[in-house]
Amino acid sequence: MNNKAIFFLFLSSLFCNAESLKSLSVLEFKEAIALSQNKKAFLENYLEEINQLDNEVNSIIATYDSSMLYKSYVYGRNKEWQGVPIIIKDNIDSRGLPNTAGSLSMLDNFPRRDAHLVSRLKKAGFLVVGKANLSEWANFRGRNSVSGWSSHGGQTRNPYNLDYNPCGSSSGSAAAVALGLVPVSIGTETNGSITCPASINGVVGIKPTVGLVSRHGIIPISSTQDTAGPIARSVFDAAVVLKSISGRDPKDSATNKIPSDFNFSGLISLKNNYLKGKRIGLILANEGDLDITFTLIKKAEKVFLEAGAEIVPITLKPLPNNFWSSALFILEHEFFIGLNEYLKKSKSSMENMASIVEFNNANKKETMGFYGQEYFLSSIAAGPGKKIEGKNTDEIYQEALAIVDFSRNYLDAVLEDNELDAIVGLTRNTAWKIDYRTGDNFENGWGNGALSAISGYPHITIPLSMVDGFPTGLSFMGTAWDEVNLINLAYSFEQKNNFFPEPAIGKN
What is the pLDDT of residues 32-77, one digit of tens each? Predict the structure, then answer.
C-alpha cells in the first residue's frame, strides 16, 4: 500500500479534508476503502467531502445516500473494482435517481432499470455515486447555448477559473474528475461532448467507436454518432472503465458490429515504450492563435521524437459543400426519432418532443432565460415523413448520410495512404468566459475531432500543456475499433510527457 492510500485511510477514520481525494487513482481508492475498518463511515465522510469540494464548481447534480452506496459496496464484494466511486452523466438511466438530461421537464423520469453500462459498472464493483451535471439536452436544445448550464442543475464552472466555461456537454463529468471528487466518470458524446470538456479540464477522455459501448438506457441524440465513454485523470484509469463498460448488448444493434476478435483485455495491457517506431500523422495547421498552436505542436512533436516515433506532417483538406448542414440534419432527424422512442418507454410525464417544447414555453423564465429551443423545433420539422421545401425528409436524410460518409472515407484514406498508426492534433483551444448573452465561444475556437465524431470513430484526448493558466489537450484519432492501439499510444505519450494538471480550486 502506498503512502497516499495510507494517508487517505487515516483521514477517513477521522474527517476527510480537501486534500484527501486529490490525485487518487482507481487502484489507490480501491485499496483505501478496502482497508478502512468502518465502510459505512468511510462512505458518509466521502459524500460529505465531495459535496463540500463541489460547492463552487457545481459538477454533481444528485447523489445516492451513504446507505445506498454501502449496499452497492456489499453487492460488489470480491469484484475487481469494488468500492471505486464513479459519477455518470445525467442522461444515463440509473435506478433510484431521475434521468433528466438537465431539464426540469424530466424531473419525474425515474428509470425502471439501469442502463446497460451502469449494470456493467456495478458488476465490475464500481460504486455509482450519482449524476453529473451537463449542458441541458447534451447541448442540443437551442442555438447560443451555454455549455455546462442546465435548468435542473444550474451552471457547472471551470475548476481552473470559476468565471470560465468547462465545455460540454459532459461538463460535470470532466470537472468532477479534475477536482478529484471521483477518480473516474462517464460522459457521452455526439460531437465533442467527451473530448472537449476533458481537454479543457485537464483530464483524459475516451470517445470509443460507436457500438463498443451500448447506448441502451441513454437519452439519445443520434443513432449514428452517440456513444458513452470514460473520463479520468490517467489513461490507465480511463481504460479500466472502458473495458468494464464495453461489450455486446442485444438491446443496441450497434454493438453487433464489434469485431469477433476484438481484444478487450488489450484495453488495459498498456506498454510504456509503445510509441517507438510508430508513424504519427501530426496535424500542423489550426485556426486561432497560430503562435500558441505552433508552440503546442512543437512540444508534442518533441515528446514523440524522444519516444522514438516517426512524425508525418498532415494538413487536412477542406470539407465538401453542404457537409456541416448535412451533418446537422442527420442529428435533427435522428434526435426526433430517438427521443420519442426513449420517452415512450420511460416513466416521464413527457410523452414526446412536442410536449417538452410545450413545457419549456410554459416555463420560459426557468427553462429559457438564456437561450431557446431551436434544435427541438428543427428536429420536429426534420422528423420522418415530413416535407421541407417540398422534399421528403427521409430522402434528405439519406442524401445527408451519403455526404457525411466523406469523413469516414477520408480518415481511412489518410491513415492508409500515409501508413499511419494514428492521426494526432490539438484537441481544441483553451476555456472561454461564461457568457449568457452570446453563448459558447465556439466560432473563434480551433481543434480536431469532429471528423472522428461524425465518422463514429475513436478519439482519445490527454493533457498536453498549460496555456495562460488553463490546460490543453492532445488528440489521438484512428479508424474503427482501433481503441487498443490508440490507448497504448496515448499511454506511452502520457508517461513520457508526465503532465497531470491539478486546479487550484478545492485545494484549500
Answer: 999 999 999 999 999 999 999 999 999 999 999 999 999 999 999 9
Q: Which is the catalytic residue, given 59, 169, 171, 244?
A: 169
**Whole-number Å distance between alpha carbons of 463 and 399:** 38
169 in active site: yes
Give the number of C-alpha atoms closer than 13 A to the C-alpha of residue 335, restricted to the C-beta side. Answer: 24
Dist CA 270 CA 71 (whole Å): 33
Q: How confident is the model at residue 290 (pLDDT cuts 50, 70, 90)?
A: low
Catalytic residue among 147, 185, 193, 199: 193
Domain map (residue ranges) of the chain: 54-249+275-508
Amino acid at 116: H
Task: Give yes or no for a contact between 499 and 464, defined as CB atoms under 8 angstroms apart.
Answer: yes
Q: Which CATH architecture has domain 54-249+275-508?
A: Alpha-Beta Complex (3.90)
Give Cβ neighbours of residue 221 (< 8 Å, ≥ 6 apart).
Answer: 138, 140, 190, 331, 334, 335, 338, 339
Cross-strand partners of 435: none
Query: What's the predicted TM-score (pTM) here?
Result: 0.95
List 471's β-bridge partners, or say none: 466
DSSP secondary structure, 42-58, as one string:
HHHHHHHHHHHHTTTT-
169 preceded by a cis bond (ω within 30 of 0)? yes
* Alpha-carbon span 67 to 49, nearest angstrom: 16
Round to whole Å and give the CA distance between 375 and 265: 40
Catalytic residue among 12, 59, 89, 326: 89
Q: Which three cell numbers stand for residue 461?
A: 484526448
* Closest by CA position to 63, among listed 53, 51, 52: 51
Cα–Cα dist 245/267, whole Å: 12
Residue 22 a catalytic site member: no
Rg of the Cα trace of the chain? 22
Bridge partners, residue 224, by sequence: none
193 noted as active-site residue: yes
